[in-house]
Specification:
493 residues; alpha/beta; 6-stranded mixed sheet; 5-stranded mixed sheet; 19 helices; elongated
Length: 493
């Protein structure tokens, strides 16, 4: 990453969409521009957890404006991240497909733990370095994340389905502020957050930080009322709730420091924050400057280099956890990577890296079943909390693992029609076939070439006669790719 490079992060939150543009200089990212729009996507979930057309249109309109500002940015310079509302929405693929086209960049839906990791990364990068043990709390629109960490490393992360938008909709739907409504909202929040007590108890951290909308809004209001800048106290929360109760309803609240876009969700946000303070015995919380979007920016830097890409570390951890035969995994990965590079000499390093991860994880389901390990492996990857990975990335890795054996057309049609994915899959399938004896195969003179929809595997003279079992498996590949848009041809010597 060269000094002066511009990077951008788009945060598709449940209440607001945010765009952060920064300039990379000597290992740090300096903010250049920040845009925020109140979209209230979380309010657009109906009873069946489908986003309404109106909510999707609000989101798409915002992304169009962000996309205009990002025109000219390379794909590797932009990360768009979606959180709880799009984790829950049953029709999220419709929104994401259109949204990605409008924005001009793919949108990654991240899991709750991955959101928490990115939040901590953003908070830690904008704090002075120290050895203090940090508790970071991020109350979003539909989820709340807790993180324990030191310096740049999060040690424990958790995500809970409670947030300012969800709680405002549920307990203050008519905008009325009553003591009974606040009590009910706080009790309900504690019921959800109660399991955090054992992990995030007061003796596990030294300083508490609050990030994002609710913490920032409360900090602004308390500072405007004469409190310390950037500090939330338990007494301040009591005072703020009392002021809301005196106003009786949201549209009558007059508080210096309260922004108009925060007014409709302040009741739910205060209820959740008070529950957090009470449960974890917090007396004061510092308002953090960093948040998810800054974490996504720094994550772009880490992804640039294989040695700093957290996803590689995560893959190694999954291999260990599921007792993968490491020698076989690395053998298949080497062969698959070689074949992939032969077929596409100009391929992106990122595509090759993802193929290598899939190859290293291709037997992850073997601990559950020997005969159906590919199906179990795909399930594990589709449901794993894997640090560094977006949900779509894990699904794509799972599809490669699922498709490593059997007929190709069992996979989703969108993937089968994707040339890049199918070349990754063919490389993996051939590597698995060649490594069937669990020893290094003889690949001298063996090559894979791609020309349009046709893929050709060639070997040196005498190879087929020397390795009849491998030859048989390669011939079976021709059958596996039938009734797909891709043709496989063998030139066996």
């Amino acid at each position: 990453m060269h000094n002066g490079t511009l990077l951008a992060a788009v945060d598709l939150g449940s209440n607001s969409f945010r765009l952060e543009i920064g300039r990379f200089e000597h290992g740090h990212i300096q903010r250049m521009e920040y845009l925020k729009e109140t979209v209230r996507l979380g309010n657009g979930l109906d009873e069946e957890f489908n986003l309404t057309r109106e909510a999707m249109q609000r989101g798409w309109d915002c992304l169009a404006r962000f996309g205009e500002r990002l025109a000219g940015f390379e794909r590797a310079q932009v990360r768009a991240v979606a959180t709880q509302t799009l984790r829950e929405a049953r029709n999220r693929e419709e929104f994401l497909a259109r949204g990605g086209e409008i924005l001009g960049y793919p949108i990654d839906v991240v899991s709750g733990p991955e959101e928490a990791r990115l939040i901590y990364q953003g908070v830690a990068r904008l704090l002075p370095q120290s050895d203090e043990r940090r508790l970071v709390v991020d109350i979003g629109g539909r989820s709340t994340e807790f993180i324990l960490g030191q310096q740049f490393r999060p040690h424990t992360v958790a995500s809970f389905r409670v947030g300012s938008v969800a709680w405002s909709t549920r307990y203050f739907a008519d905008g009325q502020f009553t003591r009974q409504a606040f009590l009910a909202a706080e009790i309900a929040a504690k019921a959800v957050l109660d399991e955090a007590l054992g992990t995030f108890r007061p003796d596990t951290w030294d300083v508490a930080y609050g990030s994002s909308g609710t913490a920032g809004a409360v900090g602004d209001i308390l500072a405007a009322a004469g409190g310390p800048e950037g500090l939330i106290t338990a007494e301040g929360l009591d005072w703020l709730q009392d002021r809301l109760l005196r106003s009786h309803q949201a549209d009558r609240v007059r508080l210096e420091g309260l922004k108009e876009d925060r007014r409709p969700v302040i009741g739910g946000g205060i209820s959740v924050l008070r529950a957090v303070f009470d449960l974890l015995e917090i007396r004061q919380m510092h308002v953090a400057q960093g948040a998810l979007r800054q974490g996504a920016l720094y994550d772009l830097l880490d992804r640039e280099q294989p040695e700093t890409d957290l996803r590689t570390t995560t893959v190694n951890g999954l291999m260990q956890r599921f007792s993968v035969d490491i020698a076989q995994a690395e053998r298949v990965a080497r062969v698959a990577s070689t074949l992939f590079t032969q077929a596409t000499p100009q391929t992106s390093e990122r595509a090759a890296r993802k193929l290598e991860w899939a190859a290293r994880l291709h037997e992850i389901g073997g601990i559950i079943s020997h005969s159906d390990y590919h199906r179990h492996g795909a399930y594990i990857l589709d449901h794993a909390d894997a640090a560094g990975f977006a949900v779509s990335e894990l699904h794509r890795l799972g599809a490669l693992v699922l498709g490593q054996r059997g007929k190709v057309r069992k996979l989703e049609i969108e993937l089968i029609n994707d040339p890049g994915f199918c070349l990754q899959l063919l490389s993996l399938r051939v590597a698995v076939a060649l490594c069937h004896a669990r020893r290094d195969p003889d690949v001298d003179g063996l090559s894979l070439r791609a020309l349009g929809s046709r893929h050709t595997i060639s070997t040196r003279a005498g190879w087929a006669a020397a390795y009849p079992q491998s030859t048989h498996l390669l011939r079976e590949e021709i059958v596996a790719w039938q009734k797909t848009p891709w043709e496989l041809e063998l030139n066996l010597g």
